[in-house]
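Model: You mentioned two targets. I'll fold them one after the other.
Researcher: Yes, keep them separate.
Model: Target one:
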Amino acid sequence: MASSKRLGIIKSVIATFSKERPLSSLELRRAGVSRELAYYYVKSGWLKRLERGAFALEGGELSQDGCLEFLNTRFPGLHIGGKTALSWRGLIHNVPFQETLCLWGPKGGRIPVWFRDRFPCRYTSRQLFEQPIMQTTAISSLPDKHGKVTVSEPERALLELLSEVGTHQEVGEARNIMELLGSIRPESLIPLLIHCRQTKASRLCVQWAEELGLPWATQAAEAIKGVTGGARWVRKLASGHTLILKGS
């Protein structure tokens, strides 16, 4: 292929796509870049290969939102959850810079090294809610920031946070965060509580809400009566804490 044609194609790619977001092989092919031509652009310094089937335009800086949007094409249903979601929605503050991103998705997989190197993260594919009814419940984008990235709404984020208590989430910090969540919407939380598959998360949500005097505590307690069983729940957590939750 003549060099002038190769130059014209890559200039068209640069004009069409953002340098803040990776490009897939399929996107490049649709833009007229064959596998052989992509290899040529990598050797020539126009493209940088991130992994098999993923490239970045040289001379730009990949953004967190752009990379998350790209990952969503590889991990359908990927969303920001737990503590990160509560922070992005402005419900908790003073989150350290470079705090580990809490990523959730419906399927197992491993986040690529090129993403983890840029943005420290943890990916959870645990099925916290009954499927398929709750798979996309209480997940939405933030209209004023983060573009197309989807984020758990506060009620779902709370249960995701509580599900990690004693493993990835310190007990005291989780309780302190929950104390700030008086504005939780019962009409959104209650269906999630009823369909929550993890006893620890649902009972912890109700017990701490009652102890903290949160305005939605009574409605939450009524919602899970008989759902999680009546016996007291006692577990020694990986963190060393023993968690004792009363029966419903």
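Model: Target two:
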Amino acid sequence: MAIFLNENSKVIVQGMTGSEGSKHTRRMLAAGTRIVGGTNPRKAGQQVDFDGTKVPVFATVAEAMAETGADTTVVFVPPRFAKDAVIEAIDAEIGLAVVITEGIPVHDTVSFWAHATAKGNRTRIVGPNCPGVASPGKSNAGIIPADITGPGPIGLVSKSGTLTYQLMYELRDIGFSTAVGIGGDPVIGTTHIDCLAAFQEDPETKAIVMIGEIGGDAEERAAEFIRDHVTKPVVAYIAGFTAPVGKTMGHAGAIISGSSGTAEAKKQALEAVGVRVGKTPSETARLMREVISSL
């Protein structure tokens, strides 16, 4: 098992013929991802050769789904065209849309998120501005390096791409069921809580590591959810313990004011519901090792 993405997922790439889309399509194929097509209206009907694997190009997501049975799309479309690309995927009712694109205006994200809601949330959006979803040994949709870890019992949900990679690497000898990079923008499609709920239901996930950051109250809300609904052990790391108040740090969503949204406040909220919180990524990995060894 895994969450959101597995060895049976049929993936298309919106923007596959662009430089980023092409580069990461090749990497995803090398990781074993079942990429069944790409979209580009101007190149529909062509095939792109990725080291001997020929991938067809379709005009639209709906056409690609009809021809291939695709259930997942990875969006590598430039920011000014990304809203239309995601809305196209939503209208086609594809099951999962992983939006890698960075720099999408928040208004555009709100627009396609609202559109997905109006359509009955038939499409799960992960991102935007995220590294994607990886189920090691099964499938990889996005830009998470495929060779830094293997399959195992840990589920990971993270706002940060680079911290996702670090924790996956530090715990590579144990391995992961699925790692989900949810993105750090102020508005995102899939939250910590969504992933916690899915990991709780996944029989192969035995423990969960959650990576948050300063700003907002997503981690506090996750703590409440863990208290009420999660029985599996959770270890967490909050980026930004040394961040100065009032400064935006990295991600657009990572800003604190007063005592609200600080790393310490989030740490206290999580520890109050039994989550062990590391002060550094390496300490967090050590805590997870202790959890796994006690299972």
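Researcher: Noted. Anything on target two?
Model: The chain is about 35% helix and 25% strand.
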